[in-house]
Design a protein that fits this description.
The protein is of the alpha+beta class. It has 9 helices and 10 strands.
């Protein structure tokens, strides 16, 4: 067992969970001072500690930094923080970027057109006013001296009227309306859906689509029961083919009216299914709800051969 006053005795005190004596503490401090010798980083000159196994000659900040290089403006040697750095200071960086150092806004500048002293509102301002600015850039200014037009438009979100300054593409009156429009969906009929709705159609369009699907399923079922030929089609396709006119009275059909409106659109079989007709495009036509109801399953009509 090592006597007190050594590093081994200090470790033994810590292992037995007892307070070490003063001689053991002094021995431990001397051993740490001997192993961990401080050194100076050659890159930045900061003081760093090195462990008993040595280690890198550079500090942690200098290990990942690029090598020393010369500034492209003043030629001074510097160590950049980033690989693409070309200037040693912000002033040299402004010359690299703009061709001249930035001027302080509070200091008075001389207008390059009229020679008037003015206070700049941004760093690259060269003239005192808009009229001098259009002259130095070779532009023309109208006689009234207006620099911005005002357009009156309706907000697409809330519908209120607002003034759009100099931009006809402005569609929203505020940032809140613009932010709300990003998360709202528009139905195929043009109606805006409420926020949070996952469906892509409104309630009216959904109801109309369900009715059309049920009517199409009923037609296919009737054709299957009678052994007739059936093919898929929609009311919109037949209406566009027939020019939105009734095949019985040759008058226009109100496509926006629901059944049982007399002028509502329906599908009429030229040769009824009960008389051996098929549920195909060539045997169907657009008809008013009233005309189709009057015709019913009786009567016949010449086959309309359409592609």
């Amino acid at each position: 067992m090592k006597p007190c006053g050594t590093t081994a005795a200090y470790q033994r005190h810590l292992k037995l969970k007892e307070p070490p004596c003063e001689s053991c503490k002094a021995a431990s401090r001397e051993d740490s001072r001997r192993k961990y010798k401080p050194s100076v980083c050659p890159g930045c000159g900061s003081l760093m500690g090195r462990g008993p196994r040595g280690g890198s000659d550079l500090c942690r900040d200098c290990r990942g930094r690029p090598a020393w290089r010369n500034c492209v403006i003043c030629g001074n040697e510097f160590r950049p923080r980033w690989e693409y750095s070309k200037a040693c200071s912000p002033k040299c960086g402004q010359i690299v970027r703009w061709g001249h150092p930035a001027k302080h806004r509070k200091n008075g500048r001389i207008c390059e057109v009229c020679g008037k002293i003015f206070v700049a509102t941004y760093d690259l301002q060269r003239t005192c006013s808009r009229s001098c600015g259009v002259l130095i850039h070779g532009r023309t200014l109208n006689a009234a001296g207006k620099t911005c037009r005002i357009w009156v438009a309706d907000c697409l979100t809330c519908g209120s009227a607002f003034t759009a300054h100099g931009n006809m593409k402005s569609s929203y009156c505020s940032r809140a309306c613009r932010r709300a429009a990003r998360f709202t969906r528009i139905c195929v009929c043009g109606e805006r859906l409420p926020l949070g709705m996952k469906r892509r159609v409104c309630d009216n369009c959904r109801h109309a689509n369900d009715l059309a699907a049920r009517r199409a399923a009923r037609r296919r079922r009737k054709a299957r029961q009678r052994g007739a030929v059936s093919e898929p089609y929609t009311l919109a396709q037949i209406a566009e083919r027939d020019g939105w006119r009734c095949g019985l009275c040759r008058k226009l059909v109100a496509m926006d009216k629901p059944i049982p409106h007399p002028k509502a659109p329906t599908i009429d079989h030229v040769v009824p299914l009960s008389r051996g007709g098929d549920d195909t495009r060539a045997n169907v036509q657009l008809a008013h709800f009233l005309c189709n109801s009057i015709k019913g399953a009786g009567g016949s009509q010449q086959l309309a051969l359409f592609g």
